[in-house]
Amino acid sequence: MRPIIGILFGVVMSSFPAFSALQEYIEQKIIGQSHLANRLLVAILADGHLLVEGAPGLAKTRAIKVLSDGIEGDFHRVQFTPDLLPSDLTGIEIYRPQDGTFHFQKGPLFHNLLLADEINRAPAKVQSALLEAMAERQITVGSVSYPLPELFLVMATQNPIEQEGTYPLPEAQLDRFLLHVTIDYPSAEAERDILRLSRQEAGGFDHGDAQPVILTQDMLMQARQAVLDLYIAEDLEAYMVNLIMATRSNHTQTGVVKHLQYGASPRATIALDRCARAHAWLNGRDFVSPEDIQSMAFDVLRHRLLLNYEAEAAGLTTDDVIGQLIAQVAVP
């Protein structure tokens, strides 16, 4: 079976050089945030959405703009505010008095890449409209549903240091995000490189080798199929399931559940499988390793585990609990 898979892998890896070049381009333009660059590509390969959390000025908005430069498709940014309406996302029906009919004018959700900036500042009705788009890949206006493009990625951002005037995202909506990525300040060396890049761009200059590689949607769909066809051993499938099962209250073989009010759902298992495959593919391998699963576990589970009062009182974070989970569940 493995030789056949290897032959098929060689055929479908034709999109890999373009993805590799695209990741290199993003890292040249988004200095010091290689983790975010990788997770953007993982999300688009796994056909999911991501929530990015970090302090202002860490290139969250710039990251998806740079990604859009290298992908065939259109990009739109929406600044979420308390006065935003669902129609500001979905679109609206406009009356035409000349013929007495209504015409639907599409909103930002019909773009391929959407940046939902400071998503937790919008009220519940707006978030529910976005939730339908993320979950069902369609939007409903009145009694009519409109399908969204096949390539549809939402990157939402949250500011962790300013909570006044925000609306916490409900757990049901958080679970719709494939990944919850946290980013931190760059190193001193990376910050110096950021300064130099900023001066070059302000002066109209850029790196001669930093040119975007346009990834067509056909190449992207081929890459997604390659990710789905990637080989994963049965014992690693069992390992992923065991990681998720260990977060649930009926599982007593590890000490993780004592810190949790709610564990992860089967959607987390599916997300971990697809993200681990995408991570392996981006690293040029035709099989999934335990390291791929462990590397993706934090971003997949961070927003899906709800700590109980005792864990919060003890000063534990969700990442602490996920670290314990990885340490306690046996690796095949």
Explained architecture:
The chain has 332 residues and is α/β, with parallel strands linked by helices. It has 2 domains: 2-202, 3-Layer(aba) Sandwich (Rossmann fold); 230-328, Helicase, Ruva Protein, domain 3 (Orthogonal Bundle), CATH 1.10.8.80. It is 46% helix and 15% strand. The protein has helices spanning 2-12, 16-29, 34-45, 60-69, 87-90, 124-136, 171-174, 188-202, 217-228, 234-245, 266-282, 290-301, 309-313, 318-328, and strands at residues 50-53, 75-79, 91-96, 101-106, 113-117, 138-141, 144-147, 153-158, 179-182, 260-262, 306-307. The strands form 4 sheets. Strands 2-5-8-1-9 form a 5-stranded parallel beta sheet. A two-stranded antiparallel sheet has the order 3-4. Helix 3 packs across helix 11. The longest helix has 17 residues, at 266-282. The protein is globular and about 70 Å long. The protein starts with a helix and ends with a helix. Mean pLDDT is 87; it is low at 1-12.
CATH architecture of the largest domain: 3-Layer(aba) Sandwich
Give the proportion of residues in helices: 40-55%
Radius of gyration: 21 Å
Beta-strand percent range: 5-15%
Note the total helix count. 14
By CATH, the superfamily of the largest domain comes out as P-loop containing nucleotide triphosphate hydrolases
Q: Count the strands?
A: 11
| CATH topology value of the largest domain | Rossmann fold
User: How many domains make up the 3D coordinates?
Assistant: 2
Question: Major sheet: order of its strands?
Answer: 2-5-8-1-9
Ranges where pLDDT stays below 50 over 5 or more residues in a row are 1-12
